[in-house]
Each structure stands twice: as C-alpha cells, then as structure tokens.
C-alpha cells in the first residue's frame, strides 16, 4: 500500500516538475516568430489594400478611366509661370513676360482672345512674326494664342501694307511650321499661309520658291505643264 502511494506521489511530482529553461526559450522563440510573421502579413495586406483603394479612388485615375465630354473643351494646359521640365520656347518666354498684348478668355463653348488695345493700333513688327513662330507650339494656350492672334492681326484695316515688308522674315518661319513632324503644327502653318496669301495677294509669289522644295516644284509642273511662274 505504501509502495503504491509513493509511486503515485512520484508520478505527480514528475508531472508538476517545471520544464528546463532551454525548452521554454525555444517555445517562446517559435511563438514570437509566428507572431512576427502574422503581423508582417497583416501589415502587407493592409498596405496593398490602402494603395489599391487610393489609386482607384483618385480623381485623376477616375477621369482617365471615364473621360468627360467637357474634357474636349479643356485641353491640357501649361502654366507659363510654373517650373518647366525643359527650357521654354522663345514664344512661350515672350508670352509669359507679357510680350503678346492679348490674353486668352475661356468660354463655355469656345475660347477667344482679348486684346489690350485694338489690333489695328499694334505694330506688325515684330508681333506678326512672333505669332508666326508660335504656330510651332504644341501646348495650350500657346497653340490657340498664336493661331488666333495671327489670324486676327491680318484682319485689321491696312494689314497688307504692314505685312508685305515682313514677307522675307515671315516665309522662313512659316516654312518651319510646314516641315514640322506634328500634323497639327503643319495644319496651322498651312492655314496661316493661306490667310497671308489672301491679304498680300501677288506679293507672295516671289517668295513661294522658298516654301517649296525642288521636288515639289517638279511634281507641280508634271501636273500643270503650263505652270511656269516659279523656276525650278
């Protein structure tokens, strides 16, 4: 009977005997590593969800995914007074300094120019040449200001007398627009040349040879055998 009691007491003491420090430390290390992995996974998931939510909820992203019809009336603009990633063009620099005596007025349907003084009172030299140089711009508002300003300046009374003396300087500038790789720049240059031709009339004929290459003249003569106003 005493033997059984001693045996039970020994088993109970063995069960209640604390674990060695090494075993406790190993178990604690495993538990800590598991907690760290769980915490890292939760943090990574939270960051991914946050970035995904912010990117999809951004107004710019929503506008790109679902463009509004009114966006066509508001082309991407450039701030002439802000920091630029590249050096501004000559026209942009003049415009930002107020060298063009007009400003762009944004309308609900179409834009227009508001001149600081009547265009007929403005000197064509160098304003008309500066506007012609702006035809090569590819960013708003420079594209609109140069195109519309050139057109409106040629509509004033006495425009022919003011424009004819500037033809030797205007033609190279218009040619630069006509050989530009951008189709819209080419179209603006061509329209400006047509407007100039209407104003100055036959005075432009002597300068056409500077606008057309020799290859273009050969093609014209092959289509129109009687064409001989310009010699190749």
UniProtKB/TrEMBL annotation:
Give start-end of the signal peptide: none
- In terms of superkingdom, the source organism counts as Eukaryota
Spans of biased composition, class Low complexity? Answer: 37-58
Which InterPro entries does the record match to this protein?
Parkin_co-regulated_protein (IPR019399)
Which residue ranges does the record annotate as region Disordered?
A: 1-82
Which stretches does UniProt call biased (Basic and acidic residues)?
1-16
- Recorded protein name is PACRG-like protein isoform X4
Gene encoding the protein: PACRGL
């Amino acid at each position: 009977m005493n033997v059984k009691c001693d045996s039970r007491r020994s088993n109970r003491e063995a069960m209640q005997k604390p674990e060695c420090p090494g075993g406790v430390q190993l178990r604690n290390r495993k538990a800590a590593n598991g907690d760290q992995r769980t915490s890292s996974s939760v943090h990574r998931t939270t960051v991914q969800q946050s970035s995904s939510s912010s990117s999809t909820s951004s107004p710019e992203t929503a506008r790109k995914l679902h463009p509004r019809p009114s966006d066509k009336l508001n082309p991407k603009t450039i701030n002439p007074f802000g920091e630029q990633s590249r050096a501004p063009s000559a026209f942009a620099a003049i415009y930002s300094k107020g060298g063009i005596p007009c400003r762009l007025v944004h309308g609900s349907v179409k834009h227009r120019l508001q001149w600081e003084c009547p265009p007929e009172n403005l000197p064509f030299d160098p304003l008309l040449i500066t506007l012609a140089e702006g035809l090569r711009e590819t960013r708003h508002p420079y594209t609109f200001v140069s195109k519309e300003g050139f057109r409106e300046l040629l509509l004033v009374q006495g425009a022919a007398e003011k424009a004819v003396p500037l033809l030797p300087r205007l033609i190279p500038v218009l040619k630069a627009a006509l050989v530009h790789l951008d189709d819209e720049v080419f179209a603006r240059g061509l329209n400006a040349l047509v407007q100039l031709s209407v104003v100055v009339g036959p005075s432009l004929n002597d300068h056409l040879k500077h606008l057309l290459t020799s290859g273009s003249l050969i093609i014209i003569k092959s289509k129109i055998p009687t064409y001989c106003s310009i010699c190749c």
